[in-house]
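Q: What changes when magnesium ion is included in the input?
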Amino acid sequence: MGLKKSVDEVRVEIPGDLKYEKVVREVTEVVATRMGFSDTEVKNMKVAVDEASSNAIRHAKPKDPKDNRVVITYSIEPSKLVISIKDNGQGFDPKAVRPSIDSLIESEGGRGIFLMKNLTDKVEYDTSPGKGTTVRLIKYLNQDRKKSR
Ligand SMILES: Nc1ncnc2c1ncn2[C@@H]1O[C@H](COP(=O)(O)OP(=O)(O)O)[C@@H](O)[C@H]1O
Ligand SMILES: [Mg+2]
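A: The predicted holo structure follows.
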C-alpha cells in the first residue's frame, strides 16, 4: 500500500444497452448523496453521468459484441468524487465536437458534452481510435470553500 491514502471505490459494469442506464443513475444518487452533495448537485451529477453512459452505450460501437459493456467507477475521495465511464469502442476526437449553447436548442450533437462540462467541475477524456473511451467527471465537495480561495 505504501504511503498512498486508500480511496473507496464503487464499480458498476453494465451491458451496453440503454435499459441499464437507470442502474447507473441510482448508484450515482446513492454514492453522491452519501458523500454529502446537495440535492441539486446530486441531480446535476445524475444528468452528467447519464449523458456519459448513454454516449458510451450509443456511440462506442465496439467491433466485437463481447466488448459491448460499460464500466462506471466511482472514486470516493475526501474532497471530491471522480466518476469514470469506460467503454471498449472505437474512440473519437472530443476536440472535433463543438459543445455549444446552440446545441441545446437545435438538439444536434454536442449537447451531452456541453451538459457534462457545465454540470461538473471538470471533464477529462481519454480516448483514441480503436482503444475505446474513458470519460472522467470530477465534482468537488464544498463549493463555497473552493470559490473563496
Ligand atoms: N464514448 C464515445 N464513443 C464514441 N464517440 C463518442 C463517445 N461519446 C461521444 N462521442 C461522439 O461525440 C458526439 C457528441 O456527443 P454528445 O455531445 O453527447 O451528442 P449526441 O450524443 O447527442 O450526439 C457524438 O455524436 C459521438 O460522435
Ligand atoms: Mg450524447
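Observations recorded in class: The chain has one domain: 16-148.
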